[in-house]
Amino acid sequence: MNMPEKNPQGNIENFDLYAPKLVDKEEYFSYGHRACQGCGEALAVRLMCKALGKDTVIASATGCMEVVSSLYPTTAWKLPWIHVAFPNSAAVGSGVEAGLKVLRRKGKIADRPVKAVAMGGDGGTLDIGFQALSGAMERGHDLLYVCFDNEGYMNTGIQRSSATPFGASTTTAPAGKASIGNKTWKKNAPEIMVAHNVPYVATACHSYPLDFMNKVKKAKKMKGPAYIQCLSVCPTGWRINSEASIKMGRLAVETGIFPLYEVENGKYRMTMELPEKLRPVEDYMKLQGRFRHLRPDQIKLIQDRVNLEFRLLMNKVEHSLSWLDKDRKISRGQTSSIG
Fold it and tell me: For the whole prediction, is pTM greater than 0.85?
């Protein structure tokens, strides 16, 4: 077998050519489900399951993935999977984690690690399920929560959520003569999770599969709560062609609208480096029907906001400290008071 060549720094050349060979060939989220053509969330779930592997129990909130994957009497899931109500996947995931811990202690099951995972869309995570998520993170359960963020309630008719971008037209925030569409800025859920002082928080996108899978693997190994927010392109709700799903995810990252980073024990790190001058947000927005009504001055307003938020993020990347840093000499519970 030919081994990949390394450059003088010891890094593998053409890593992307060899990386797929390292990915689990087993499909834990099966083909044959009923997701829309080009569904970014279905791809993201497939990648997540490959990264998690067999020793996993998943609690899934009501949403697109529950509807398309489990129409009785069929299922696309080859991992232990529990369908729960819209607001409580984090609560059920917490219960699974606690139950597994007790069963191991009593000798009822083998003493081996089994990861409890909870998942939901942006509505089931940032709106309806936010109380349960906050409680699970604050209590410190050994739980991974993954939010598949398609920026709206796509399963029930493309209604706005608190993750819907400013200016996007939805069925409950339609654009018109008297309205720009959605009038609020997207809720920054990763930052809210960082404020819970959890060991690991990350953003991801299915258009960068290895980055996403590596983050899932890292979160799985973490002891304690972890949160990943994965941007999941929805061709139906975003009003784009189905073949544009991967391209749209990449444009979201390249414009700085959805940068990819991780926060490990309070320390920020970019996982996908971007040029100093980001691509204009218009490159991303002009391809989507939900933004087609926006005027140039409104797009400039969004551009200015993206530039500001990206500068704030890069400042944290440059200046943040891990709460495990010996020079910091501060306990985890005190980090929320540090600027």
Answer: yes
